[in-house]
Specification:
homodimer, about 160 residues, alpha+beta, Arc Repressor Mutant, subunit A, Dna Ligase, domain 1, three-stranded mixed β-sheet, 6 helices, 5 strands, binds zinc ion, DNA-binding
DNA sequence: GGAGAAATGTTATCCTATTGCTTCTTTAAA
DNA sequence: TTTAAAGAAGCAATAGGATAACATTTCTCC
């Protein structure tokens, strides 16, 4: 798989996501510490989702001392605050596009390039909630991961093949 | 979490699932070897999904020599044949209720007791496929995991609390 | 029977995640 | 302003999940 691309930290989407996070944390009275903020920045600064150890490597490049718990605790915080999602099928973490609204996350994940697209289909969410209700099941969180190939990747194959 | 309950290997659902698997593999011209069959049996013989190492422990109790690759290879085969699913959020494996029809799997997973209920909501499946189509994304497989509490578990809490 | 393919055995290692405990920092009360 | 308590981060060790690489066995087909 291709290595995750680094994006300028000051990219519009990263800056916007960080400002949004600052605001949310202030509203909620929770602390977006330097470390937590930096981990969020690292996640948003890459085109593809990163694993915990990849994030740790970046932290070490920063010069910061670090062991796995350092990054996992920051990730736990960001997950609790709904600022990031964990993609269980890949053991990676990706920034949430709608951190205001609590949700489990719906993702299109490209098997070939690792790129991720977050959906927000409330109809799907409701249908699943209905299914759960019908069985007396109390829903805490939904996670939907659709694995496949993004346009770039399958078009590349098509061109080569035909 | 509660330990996974062992169920008699000859329980109706286990026996039925194994017969179904035998038939499918024969039709498909693939080999359901003794090991693969036994792993499938172990999975169906437990009330809750098992992790790979838990399955390995059972194999060892059988007296069979075994290392992780032993069980992972069998699991890979069963996954390829759609006879089991992997629940990525828990790193466990569970038997598929509809191995004829290829599908990623939709699950209600109880956070407290680990019990799993497989859904087969085609409307959800279609909606997600539509979302993917609209983005030019080629779907290979969908995985849906709804985490929450089963009736038994939240009713227990309700009784205790109120 | 013999060649090639498929499956399994075996060992070592990698990747992911957590536990337990210590130290530092922040917060708020005295 | 000191000080206690809580929260966050540092640190070392370890648990848990999965794979790589290679040897050996078993099966299939000629
Ligand atoms: Zn989101
Ligand atoms: Zn792609
Ligand atoms: Zn199924
Ligand atoms: Zn339960």
């Amino acid at each position: 798989m291709a290595a995750p691309l680094e994006i300028a930290s000051s990219s519009p989407r990263a800056r916007q996501a960080l400002e949004h996070a600052e605001r949310l944390c202030q509203e909620r009275g929770v602390r977006l510490t330097v470390l937590r903020r930096r981990v969020l920045e690292i996640i948003w600064s890459h085109a593809r989702p990163l694993g915990a150890y990849a994030i740790l490597d970046v932290l070490r490049d920063d010069g910061r001392a670090g062991a796995p718990p350092t990054v996992y605790r920051a990730l736990d915080f960001l997950l609790e605050q709904g600022l990031i999602h964990r993609l269980a099928s890949l053991n990676v973490f990706t920034g949430c596009c709608q951190p205001d609204r609590r949700h489990g996350g719906q993702f299109l994940i490209c098997r070939d390039c690792g790129q991720v697209d977050e959906l927000n289909n409330t109809q799907v969410e409701c249908l699943l909630n209905d299914e759960a209700d019908a069985r007396g099941f109390e829903v805490l969180t939904q996670m939907i991961e659709v694995l496949g190939r993004c346009p770039n990747c399958w078009q590349g194959v098509t061109h080569r093949a035909g």
